[in-house]
Amino acid sequence: MTIISRKMTTATAGASLVRKMFEEGARLRASLGPDKVFDFSIGNPDLPPPPVFQKTLARLVAEARPGAHGYMPNSGWPEVRAKVAAHLNRTEGAGLKNPFTADQVIMTVGAAGALNIILKAILDPGDEVVTPRPYFMEYNYYADNHGAAIVPAEPGPAFRLNLESIAEKIGPKTRAVLINSPHNPTGVIYRAEELAALGRLLTSAGQRHGRPIFLVSDEPYRKLAYDGLKVPSVFAAYPYSVIGTSFSKDMSVPGERIGYAAINPDLPDHQSLFNAMALANRILGFVNAPSLMQLALADLLEESVDIGLYEQRRNILADGLAGLGYQLTRPEGAFYLFPRSPLANDDDFVNLLKEENILTVPGRGFSLPGYFRICYCLPPDMIKNSLPGFARALAKAKG
Amino acid sequence: MTIISRKMTTATAGASLVRKMFEEGARLRASLGPDKVFDFSIGNPDLPPPPVFQKTLARLVAEARPGAHGYMPNSGWPEVRAKVAAHLNRTEGAGLKNPFTADQVIMTVGAAGALNIILKAILDPGDEVVTPRPYFMEYNYYADNHGAAIVPAEPGPAFRLNLESIAEKIGPKTRAVLINSPHNPTGVIYRAEELAALGRLLTSAGQRHGRPIFLVSDEPYRKLAYDGLKVPSVFAAYPYSVIGTSFSKDMSVPGERIGYAAINPDLPDHQSLFNAMALANRILGFVNAPSLMQLALADLLEESVDIGLYEQRRNILADGLAGLGYQLTRPEGAFYLFPRSPLANDDDFVNLLKEENILTVPGRGFSLPGYFRICYCLPPDMIKNSLPGFARALAKAKG
Fold first, then answer.
1. Quick check: A49 and B58 CB within 8 A?
2. Interface pTM, i.e. ipTM
3. Facing residues of B178 across strands?
4. Domains within chain A, CATH numbers bracketed
5. Is B81 on the interface with A (CB under 8 A)?
6. Could you read off the pLDDT of A3-51 as tens digits, one per residue?
7. Interchain proximity B66–A48, CB inside 8 Å
8. Positive or negative, the Cα torsion across A364, A366, A372, A374?
């Protein structure tokens, strides 16, 4: 008999597959040396935080202002939220009737914390959240945390939004559509026209079902966009929109658990959603986002690591793999690439790559078998040195 | 029609009563001046963090060690967890068969985060958690977050553990008993004999119901003990015990959301509980405890603010109120006092105190009407200056 809950017995059994893969990576590194193992399995930014982050942190610690480590409202420091609101007005305010204020911003324990307080605020047990495949499988837990369930929609060509499938999956229990752009694991960035069309779809579906359907946008990779692309905002596309984001990827501080949620200022009755999300922050056990990091990042909203370095890696990997004959959609942002598996069974191909000391994640780990995910948070030389292994694995698969 | 979930519609309606009280405090301070309002309503430590905390933080920021702000295992930095384990062996290892190791420690987003990952790991929907009245009402949400419910037991004389009531409340759905020592809102510290008796009760109840009942101990006030008392450990009392704690109160850093959970090393199959709690940390959206604060506090495990300052306040307030004729149980720890309400209706008496610009919380806010809570996180002079107001309110109540 297990001593833990039935739910977590199932969850830990599933999780131990992933853990085994990580352990395999550690084992390989220990036996072969770290430069011989190409660990493309995890989205852990390898660039250090920008120097201005360390400087700001040092200044704040030296200042030792009274209360800097104390409680504040569950939504976060008001002056920090006001600065985030000003940032949102500059970057995503176009086309909105109302400006962002501190009352639409809640500082959170990373984007995962943001998504959980958003979902807690809007979901009752039995509700459904539609999300396009492939998707970050943690979403299943985030919905289940609040008694709800993810309903996957099919992807469109090149992983673009498939409005027909989304429309088909929306029913009377649908409370939200959850999207992610730039996208993990495909690197796709949804265009303004796609978002506008999705907004129209959700408006009419909400009217048909007699209650609004929220558009929840998971955006931790917003600043990681390449080829001069700007990530279009969901706010202008649809009033019932809420975003969750973090500084984890663009400032390389994922261990600090700092991000925010922002509510569309054009959302009718946004105050009640804000109140529910702030209370959710408290009762889910987050209480508030870490204080010192709130204060530090409020002055660094326009900063980021050098995005060009990730773009350079994208180029080496996408060009390299395409040159070898891999079928892939060129990522437009984030730091993931999601090629077709040359074998029908993506697990088998991931195992072929493992024989080359290349660690990746099968597409079934993102609810889309037949593909595999490569995370390119690795130095350019490592990426280059991995290409012969990718070539050999492809040859074996074809042979 | 509300746009938020039914659950949160109810929750925010309840929460707005508390919010109104806080707003009243802010309004009073603005109109009368901050020194004229005696805000005993919130447990927000007013002492600054000890200087060694600032120094350690400054050193860590200056070091800028690679990866210090990056991801680590969901359970926290292994070297930090090893230091916490060593601390637990020094302070709570007596009477245990096995020593604590890093594998029984999970760094968390405060004690609230710790309690939520513990409960998530052991509770299925429909399960029950028994806790003695009065209790921190957030526990209701923490249980509900995982589909479970709090079942309150009655307090014993002077708020000591009432084993008869606890035994009576334990049924086939009981998965845990949740205690808190030093106790919010009474300041009681459970004695080693009380804990041992509770342990025996849980052992036999677990055998009767065919599965272990966990003892979950919420211990953020462990270092805030007075009169030379040492807070006895639950670990020696019962093998199926888990604690959640934080540095919020003893280091005055509640805004940083840093604490830990520790599993009894004598707990059979502690590894599966550890795995479930580490996974819960991830899937509830905490992911991990804030990195820099983990590293900072790992070297400060024997440090705290000057506890004597809180003891001094306890003396001024407990002696002062007892001298005025209030009926109270002298607190042994934490920074709360929970006197009997001189009026049968504690709301009415809290309102009488409000007329004296003294803000407190009615006992019904802790599931025990007929009392009220005073939090003495205020400078000694403020506490002294509040006593005439307490005297007048008592006179009015008696008059």
1. no
2. 0.96
3. B216
4. 6-49+305-398 (3.90.1150.10), 65-298 (3.40.640.10)
5. no
6. 899 999 988 887 766 667 777 788 888 899 988 999 999 888 989 999 9
7. yes
8. negative
